[in-house]
Design goal:
alpha+beta; 17% helix; 6 strands; transmembrane helix; membrane; 123 residues
């Protein structure tokens, strides 16, 4: 599940009120976290490395045009100027969703087993 880094900012389809994506927002991201940097041209799936001199630096792990996942040796370094980034989302594990899915699966399996007609006759 991807979450907006600036989740307190109002969501609009227009360009944000700032001219450059605030550099302090990157302090919320850890090295090698999966992020999506959205620009006017396309979305970049990046493994975050750092921000340096107003530029986001990371490794592209999905092809920006096709969205195909790249093999480890096909990934490449990318530098995106912060003034081109319109929105930034970071991959966060949602343990609540996984817990609900796990419990629902176990309950479903339980009812499947107790209600199944296995075709076994004792008589």
């Amino acid at each position: 599940m991807y979450k907006d880094v600036m989740d307190l900012a109002p969501k609009t389809t227009e360009r944000a009120q700032f001219e450059q994506f605030p550099e302090n927002e990157f302090m919320k991201i850890h090295k090698n976290e999966r992020i999506i940097a959205k620009t006017a041209e396309r979305d970049y799936n990046v493994l975050y490395k750092k921000v340096e001199n107003g530029t986001l630096i990371g490794m592209v792990w999905k092809e920006p045009v096709t969205g195909d996942i790249l093999k480890l040796n096909d990934r490449y370094l990318i530098k995106i100027p912060l003034d081109e980034i319109q929105k930034l989302e970071v991959w966060k594990k949602n343990y609540v969703v996984w817990g609900v899915v796990g419990v629902a699966s176990l309950v479903g399996l339980y009812f499947l087993i107790i209600n199944a007609d296995w075709g076994i006759s004792l008589y």
